[in-house]
Amino acid sequence: MFAMNAAATLPREPHAALPGMPPADDGGDDYAQAAAVFSRTGGLATCDQVACLMRDRCSQPVSRLAHWIVGGALVSFERLGQRFIPMFQFDPEAMTLREGVDELVRTLSATRDEWHTALWFTRSHPGLRGATPADVIGQPSDRPSIAAVQCARSPAVIELADVARASS
Asked: pTM to 2 decimals?
């Protein structure tokens, strides 16, 4: 699952020339919106690509990435047989998770599946002045992450997630 066979084809610069979203063959409007947000906030990468970007910055990048995925510390989702990771979650220089991402993802994952957790990051929120969490998490300050965590914990967000789950 996390083989590093793509190493030779990846650029050395963080986030440079990563592919866009996989084809939108069956995702509808949710998928199109997610594609637009993820494209402007660093794009998406496969596990192999993220591990390659991490390899010069940490020891055992495959193990660390697998630990983050299995532990629910970052947003990832499967599409067309591949696991994709939105890059807004990473500090592009260190290739570490941005502060607050793990807490935020774990909070959201308690009431959502992985795709709906990913979608949450692509929706504008009044508590973020209409911005999406993916947009604000990529900002230099850690304040946006704190605001996004508060947004995720609000009773209205939790109620909406419960309603969405019940109707699925």
From this structure: 0.72
Distance (Å, whole) CA 50 – CA 48: 6
Residue range(s) defining the domain that contains residue 104: 7-167
Exposed, middle or buried: residue 81 (CB in 10 Å: 0-12, 13-18, 19+)? Answer: exposed
The span from the CA of 88 to the CA of 45, in Å, is 11
84-126: per-residue pLDDT in tens? 999 999 998 999 999 889 988 998 888 889 999 999 999 988 8
Q: Is residue 62 part of a domain?
A: yes
Report how many domains make up the chain: 1
The verdict on residue 2 lying in a domain is no
Which DSSP letter does residue 85 get? E
pLDDT beyond 80 at 25? no
